[in-house]
Amino acid sequence: MPEYKVFYFNVKALGEPLRFLLSYGNLPFEDVRISRNDWPALKPSMPMNQLPCLEVNGKKVNQSLACCRFIAKDIKLAGNDDWENLQIDTVADTVNDFRLKIAVVSYEPDDEVKEKKLVTLNNEVIPFYLEKLDDIARENGGYLSLGRLTWADFYFAGIIDYLNYLAKQDLTANHENLRKVVDNVIGQSAVQDWINNRPHTDI
């Protein structure tokens, strides 16, 4: 069995999908949480100087979506053929696009510019993505792809607390199908065990 380590800060955010997937697959991993004070010294040792970072048998790789996809193939949460994998990738990338559109406004340093961007984000961008993603989840019976559990569900469920924090709202509150996606992931016994025992963080 490969030896896994997940390197990330002491938050859920982009590291949590990896932790969810490894937990679901009963793949033991070392959860390495890096403090902000320690990060400058460790940064040069990470691929592209970025986190999260997944280490597999001593080899480090970055890019959280690629890492999720890699783990998913080992725990039967990927597609059964290229077309199915494309369906999963498409919705996972859409969720990531949604994250980036929220993040670019949330992290805007100029308060005046941020206020203007928030109007568009809250009135146009967020409603658009939530409606589209909720429709996808409804069509797939509470999943984001293929009508069954895939790593795209884990990616969404893993980052939803982070998205809620950035958007300053409960994004699934009025979207029952997306709520089902989250529940279908966190309802897995191994994931629930992880949630019950992980370090407490707000995001």
UniProtKB/TrEMBL annotation:
Keywords: Transferase. GO terms for molecular function: glutathione peroxidase activity; glutathione transferase activity. Residues 81-203 form the GST C-terminal domain. Residues 2-79 form the GST N-terminal domain. InterPro entries: Glutathione-S-Trfase_C-like (IPR010987), Glutathione-S-Trfase_C_sf (IPR036282), Glutathione_S-Trfase (IPR040079), Glutathione_S-Trfase_N (IPR004045), GST_C (IPR004046), GST_superfamily (IPR050213), Thioredoxin-like_sf (IPR036249). Its EC number is 2.5.1.18. The keyword Transferase applies. GO terms for biological process: glutathione metabolic process. Coiled coil: none annotated. Gene3D superfamilies: 1.20.1050.10, Glutaredoxin (3.40.30.10). It catalyses: RX + glutathione = an S-substituted glutathione + a halide anion + H(+). Homodimer. Belongs to the GST superfamily. Sigma family. This is glutathione transferase.
